[in-house]
């Protein structure tokens, strides 16, 4: 029960972070002042009670801890479930295992690589396609110019992987917690798909808008 609760809580934290991060990214459509102001405001959030960037560091620690706990809980619960059903539904399990492998394992690897690149690109400013800048808005616009199509393509692939990961993760969490009864499966699937689509589209809009010249 403890692992299930840990998975549910950490999963909820990560989903809320994705939604908040997506909201911040969409401010690019309000212009440079709004986008940079939002980024600067995060650094000063909680000041002077917290030191400058104190909130960001607390958030980073919480997120990293949540990711590690979530992965641990998912792996342990997944192994337990696999052992319990080892001799049942062999054909069905192959399909489910294949889907889970691509969305949770391979998709997870792609997401992990992207997170590292994303931090180095738009947070640390260590990787700077299009040129370095102290402005978060300029870093985003510079990095997704048409000539850097491979950066945009990598971003798109990773975000789609996040969408599949999120959809499957919600469904698996409901199954693990025992709430996806037959009568509820349609609603749970609809919520999982809708949330995955919202997050995916929300994250794709800013870079694609830059690449296609809608934001400059």
UniProtKB/TrEMBL annotation:
Main localisation: membrane
A Pfam short name: Sdh_cyt
SUPFAM superfamilies: Fumarate reductase respiratory complex transmembrane subunits (SSF81343)
Cited InterPro entries: Cytochrome_b-558 (IPR011138), SQR/QFR_C/D (IPR034804), SuccDH_FuR_B_TM-su (IPR000701)
Top-rank taxon: Bacteria
Localization: Membrane
Record has Protease as a keyword: no
Identification of the protein by name: Succinate dehydrogenase cytochrome b subunit
